[in-house]
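Entry 14. Structure prediction run on the chain below.
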Amino acid sequence: MKETSEARSSIDIREMFGKVWQKKRVYYVVWALTVLLSCIYIYSVPRYYVSESKLSPEAGEGAGNTIGGLASQFGLNIGGVENSDAIFPMIYPDLMEDNEFVTGMFNIKVRDVKGEINTTYYEYLSKHQKLPWWTSATLWVKRLFIKRKPVVKSKFDPYALSEFDHNLAMKIRTDIQLNYNDKTEVVTVKTKAQDPLVSKILADSVMGRLQEFIIKYRTNKARIDYEYYKKLVASAKQDYERVRRQYGMTSDANMDVNLKSVELRVADLENDMQLKFNAYSAMCAQLEAAKAKVQEKTPAFTVIKGAEVPVRPAGPKRGMFIFFMLVLVTLFTTCYVLRQDILRIVEIKPRKD
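Output returned:
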């Protein structure tokens, strides 16, 4: 009985191959249509290029930076360790969620590899993008039936974007990625564009803006102190010069007067001038210290990998797409040809009481 079942199974498999072979013309037609339609689709999708750069920012100050850095290598977070940074490197990628940071890229100057485009990133995304034919047709139809009112531009507000600017910001978030590796402490910037040179320029510009953000954040308190001492120095200098002029005029006007009251007044002015000078000197010393603090707080950066102009497009993978579609339609066609045999194999057997 067992041998009969095995023989029947073997015969069934040979019959299946025979049915498939009998329908080979169907496969030829399906393959030809699949290749044709796949080519029409995939060759209509614009190619894009990807450029990548890597940066290692200097760790922030704090007594526990070394211990915390070692602990992070093992995936640990020591909550009690003091760190002066409120923004940790692992949340730098979250900057792409901020409209101000993203819309700040609108003014990036870009140019294409052929030298035909030299404009801002905003204009590049607005007017110099290749679109699939079906997308262009959809936009054309929308323009026929939807009349858009001209938008009166006032002061630009990154947190009150128009629908068009919002869509551009969302595309930027798709085309530009920031990633942080907590083990190597390396920030990776990956940019995508339809032109290889544009993708390289974007990677460099985003890396520069990220460095500016980190420097601005790390030195914020020191810069506020520096500006504060600048005002104190200017005020102290003004007071000192006022008292000095007053002392000089009083001394010159009473040079030949020997009255005791005049001598006391001149002495008081001289003492006041000395006090003002001492305060001015102290403020100057504080200003220099604050200036040095700004430099001390400014982090250093190590560029591990600079962005390069990609030689080959990153996608879409046309050959792989067509091959995948051929495999897919071959599977579906085979299931259709052998549908009766498949149903017979997977049919539900009656339950035993």
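The longest helix spans residues 260-297.
Filed with the rest of this week's runs.
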